[in-house]
Write a structure and sequence with these properties.
heterodimer; A: 326 residues; alpha/beta; eight-stranded mixed β-sheet; four-stranded antiparallel β-sheet; 12 strands; globular; B: 322 residues; 12 helices; 13 strands; 36% helix
């Protein structure tokens, strides 16, 4: 088996919060992304999903852990050494307008990453810029426009063009559709699917919304308070979530259909503070299935079969009770 | 509510925000009011309680509560009703709690406002209320300050205050705005349990059709300061009779995510009622020439359903693509 494009092992990121306390945003996260694969990192606010993305791009220094990109350990590289790799990992932000300089024309905005990377001769840059803008559905007329002249969806397509212009292998998408309206959102999701296929891209799709990632990603990792609690193929997670938190997250999606059967919501209480994490499993105070063991130790990520794992002492029991093969 | 009108009086002139709203609610019933921001939902709720202050004002109309017109009452009479028989929750619970007072003190104030309970009895009642809204260690929490609590906890405190007396009508304005999804479900379940236990009528204002589909019996759709459709929840989702209702349902279904519907809605919120004709005519895919000159009235279609659209029967039966 070929080495994965991205490998994250035991990633930890704590932020100091004064008086010897710290915000424990990421607490030992491991996952891999194969070439051409799209992995969704799903969780609510405070789950640490965005922090993971920032660490991959070296926008944040991890507290500990290993990040290997294309077989190279990047987590401790000096910035100058990382710069040539930066071309190969790009980021798309949540707020398209806020991430585009309002005083630059689209041609300049999309060409900017090329200037910074510097491996494409200046004479060839305009051609590359137009090529990538066409890929995301624009024609040459857009080159002279400013961001404010474009709709939200079009601004996000510019954001995407900026990420793709350096021909990356991996694109980190941080809530790329959360700020967009419904019809535009479908358009961006379709575009993301097409681009991945055409260009053989890998995605790390960060989102709080399981349904947004369903069409684009082939694998899902669910995060809660800085830990991955469950991973699996997208359809498996949707059809047969095993971790109590994944189940709760899925059952909180209220479809505009009164005939949808609504499972009684089963988590109680509040999301604990990442400054003061509970001992044992981070979910045990809210979980109806918690046992004494759950208060003692954090359950390991148990691999049920390759690509399918769950961090719950009762995960196998849940799978058996479900009856279907996992 | 009968023919309720309200307006915003600014320097640039008077802008109508409610244009003749009629709503009827039975005791113990749960009604969801949906609409985009700017449609007048929040103003409606405030008008109902006589809480509109300049530059907002209520113009004409009646709000009959058990047969008494609330708008004809004095401020003093209203104060005796607010918080006792009619209570309101807010989308921003933290803003509506006093940051300098302990939670217990604030609930006790609400309890004592409408009863002659002793301080000791009021504290006991406050603890009981916190327990009822699912706050762990209620006795200890009484001495917490709002900033020591999460958004979900603050919303629970607001609900506890709203239910401190035997409330007959609870007005919940976007009770889950800004909360994480797993917390939202807990708050909604709690609210529904409580209104059932106390046989309280509920008006739930929301832009999330998913919430209304699962937590309300009836729905009223607002557009540009008017109710454009009312129906039972099952009949609304199977055969909405107003083109705007259809648009909302389609958007919510496509998104399968309420937070995104909100985004659509914010962009379209400039909708203002034109002087003549139907307010929705400019956006409506099935508008007729008549719709631009004549305003349709909210008229009943079948038992318990009404819509303000000249083509309501065709739209409801899906004979036209609205």
């Amino acid at each position: 088996m070929a080495a994965p494009l991205l490998e994250v092992r035991d990633l930890v990121k704590h932020f100091p919060a004064g008086r010897e306390r710290s915000v424990k945003a990421v607490n030992g996260v491991s996952f891999e992304i194969a070439r051409g694969e799209a992995l969704a990192l799903v969780g609510e606010s405070g789950s640490g999903k965005t922090t993971v993305g920032r660490c991959l791009l070296r926008l944040l220094e991890p507290t500990s852990g290993v990040i290997r990109f294309a077989g190279i350990e990047v987590h401790a590289m000096p910035p100058a050494a990382f710069r040539p790799l930066r071309r190969r990992i790009q980021l798309v932000f949540q707020e398209p307008y806020d991430s585009l300089n309002p005083r630059m024309r689209i041609a300049t905005l999309v060409g900017e990453p090329l200037r910074q990377v510097g491996d494409v001769p200046a004479a060839r840059r305009p051609g590359r810029v137009l090529e990538v803008l066409r890929m995301v559905g624009f024609d040459a007329a857009v080159l002279d426009k400013y961001p404010h002249q474009l709709s939200g969806g079009a601004q996000q397509r510019v954001g995407l063009a900026r990420a793709l212009v350096t021909r990356p292998d991996l694109v980190v998408l941080d809530e790329p559709t959360s700020a967009l309206d419904v019809s535009v959102r479908a358009e961006i999701l379709n575009l993301l699917m097409d681009l991945r296929e055409q260009l053989g891209l890998s995605y790390l799709f960060i989102s709080h919304d399981l349904t947004a990632v369903r069409r684009v990603c082939n694998r899902v990792a669910v995060m809660y308070l800085g830990k991955v609690v469950e991973t699996g193929a997208t359809e498996q997670i949707f059809e047969q979530p095993l971790h109590p938190y994944s189940r709760a997250l899925l059952s909180s999606v209220l479809y505009p259909d009164p005939t949808q059967k609504l499972p009684r919501f089963m988590l109680s209480g509040e999301i604990p503070s990442p400054i003061d994490l509970p001992a044992g499993c981070h979910l045990h105070q809210r979980c109806p299935w918690a046992t004494a063991a759950c208060q003692q130790a954090y359950p390991p990520l148990d691999t049920l079969r390759p690509g399918r794992s769950v961090a719950c002492f009762r995960g196998r029991e849940m799978a058996e009770a479900d009856g279907r093969p996992v | 509510m009968q023919n309720l009108h309200a307006a915003h009086q600014g320097e640039g002139g008077t802008v109508p925000v409610l244009n003749g709203v009629d709503i009827t609610l039975a005791a113990g019933e749960t009604l969801g009011i949906v609409g985009e921001s700017g449609s007048g939902k929040t103003i409606l709720v405030r008008a109902l309680l006589g809480l509109l202050r300049p530059p907002w004002r209520t113009d004409v109309g009646r709000v009959l509560f058990d047969g008494q017109d609330l708008l004809a009452k004095s401020e003093e009479e209203l104060r005796a009703l607010r918080g006792r028989v009619i209570a309101l929750t807010t989308p921003e619970p933290r803003k509506h709690l006093n940051p300098l007072l302990r939670i217990g003190e604030q609930i006790v104030n609400v309890v004592q406002a409408h009863s002659d309970a002793s301080r000791r009895a009021a504290y006991a009642r406050a603890e009981e209320l916190l327990r009822a809204v699912g706050i762990p260690d209620p006795r200890q929490r009484l001495s917490s300050y709002p900033h020591e609590m999460s958004g979900g906890m603050c919303q629970r405190v607001i609900i506890a205050m709203a239910l401190a007396h035997s409330t007959r009508l609870l007005l919940a304005d976007e009770p889950t705005a800004g909360l994480d999804v797993t917390i939202s479900r807990q708050i909604l379940d709690l609210m529904l349990d409580l209104v059932r236990d106390f046989d309280t009528a509920l008006i739930l204002v929301s832009r999330d059709l998913g919430v209304v589909a699962h937590y309300c019996e009836r729905v009223a759709v607002m557009y540009a300061g008017q109710i454009v459709e009312t129906a039972s929840v099952p009949s609304f989702f199977t055969g909405a009779a107003h083109p705007y209702s259809r648009h909302l349902i389609r958007a919510a279904t496509a998104a399968r995510d309420a937070s995104l519907v909100e985004a659509t809605i914010a962009r379209e919120s400039s909708a203002r009622a034109p002087d003549a004709g139907c307010a929705y005519a400019v956006r409506c895919p099935v508008a007729l020439a008549r719709c631009r000159s004549e305003r349709p009235r909210l008229e009943s279609l079948t038992e318990g359903r009404a819509a303000s659209c000249f083509r309501k029967a065709e739209v409801a039966a899906a004979r036209v693509e609205a």
